[in-house]
Design goal:
Helices cover about 35% and strands about 25% of the residues. With about 250 residues, it is of the alpha/beta class. The model has no long low-confidence stretch (mean pLDDT about 95). Beta-D-glucopyranose binds near residues 66, 75, 104, 105 and 151.
């Protein structure tokens, strides 16, 4: 089955047509940069532009960086707060005329990795972290993936969200060295290991392409691997969700 997967992120929307029986992209990836924070209405316009680019009328899976219940968006840490309370299927469905399935962006990435990527055939406990504008997370056991919000684990002396110290965006903005940033990730992963005991940790997000530069500082108990789909995991997983959501 073919579906359009869209990954909404803090700095861009990325989309591609995906063969959900293989996880392969059937088109080039199309990217719409969003240097300014888009309102829900503007984002709906961008999603429409994405469907028009692909001349797409079929099902669309959308990975969104927030808590999703049903198709309602409940948090929006790094996008416009006006998304909170929006029904994503309605918002994007009305703009595009397509059937929309909403999923958390990190859960989408995890679904792709567990099915076709670094975690394929792995039935034990796996934790996936995406390092981007924020820190996304999901957990998989027996191949069943569930979204988590571990990027908001209280961190530092004021108990701010851990992602404010650990996201890949912080590495850039604060011009941290790989060693400094890797050290922060080590402390964070040590806590997550204590609480969740994953056997495998998969790291995604754009920065996973540079994994050799920082994995050496993390030193987890679990097996640490980069996401095989790198930054396309969210697109592939969103497409899978649109094809298979019950
Ligand atoms: C959001 C998560 C999302 C992550 C990565 C966090 O701020 O709360 O839902 O998965 O960013 O985009």
């Amino acid at each position: 089955m073919k579906t359009l997967g869209i990954d909404i992120g803090g700095s861009a929307l990325k989309g591609a047509i995906v063969d959900t029986t293989t996880g392969k992209l059937l088109s080039e990836r199309f990217r719409i940069d969003t240097p300014d924070t888009l309102t829900p209405k503007e984002m709906a316009g961008a999603v429409k532009a994405m469907t028009q680019h692909f001349k797409w009328k079929g099902p669309v899976g959308i990975g969104f960086p927030g808590v999703i219940q049903g198709s309602t968006i409940w948090t929006s840490a790094n996008l416009d707060k006006k998304f909170i309370g929006c029904d994503g299927a309605k918002l994007f469905g009305q703009a595009t005329g397509c059937r929309i399935a909403m999923i958390n962006d990190a859960a989408a990435a995890g679904a792709a990795e567990m099915r076709y990527g670094a975690g394929r055939d792995f039935m034990g406990k796996a934790l996936l972290l995406t390092l981007g504008t924020g820190v996304g997370s999901c957990f998989s056991y027996q191949g069943v993936v569930t979204a988590m919000e571990l990027g908001h684990f209280p961190w530092g002396k004021h108990g701010k969200s851990a992602e404010k110290f650990l996201a890949a965006s912080v590495l850039e903005q604060k011009k941290l060295s790989w060693k400094e940033w890797g050290g922060r990730l080590r402390d964070y992963v040590a806590i997550l290991e204590k609480l969740l005991w994953p056997e495998m940790i998969i790291v995604g997000g754009g920065v996973s392409a540079d994994h050799a530069k920082f994995f050496k500082y993390i030193k987890p108990r679990a097996q640490l691997v980069p996401a095989e789909f790198l930054n396309n995991a969210g697109i592939v997983g969103a497409a899978l969700w649109a094809a298979e959501k019950k």
